[in-house]
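Entry 14. Ran structure prediction on the chain below.
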Amino acid sequence: MKVNHGIAITALTALLACGTAAAQDDTSVPWGRLSDKEQAVLSDFEREWDALAPERQARLIRGARRWTTMTPRQRTAAQQRFSMWRQLPDDRRQLIRERYELYRDLSPEDQERIRGNFERFRKLDRERQQQLRERYRNMTPEQRRRIREHLIKQGHNRAGRD
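Output, structure tokens:
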């Protein structure tokens, strides 16, 4: 199977940019220790591999492993997400990174609650989604804070009942 390195690197970078967790390993991985598939996906990095920080190497290796297990459809979706990511202004990308860090620090239960709420929102028709967005935009910062607190409290109460 021939690998399109430009596409693979683009998608791999997308995976990394969209929140692939950083490694805690402080040791460098020699290029020769990578599998043939990993080397194929990461070939654009071969010349500079030894100069990369160990954390970056580990992220790239995890991304390459993930890329090689994706179906063609999943790869296409990853490429599209990365394309959208690159089109965002820097300040918007920074905000997304910061919010992801906050999300990552939440308990697994709170993360699951957020994913469930997002999935329910996605299933709404576009008109209802837009109404909810407008309603939120028109709230004062105080109203937004109260609603967030209410939803957090509601989530903890619901979790206690299950």
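The radius of gyration is 20 Å. Will compare against last week's run tomorrow.
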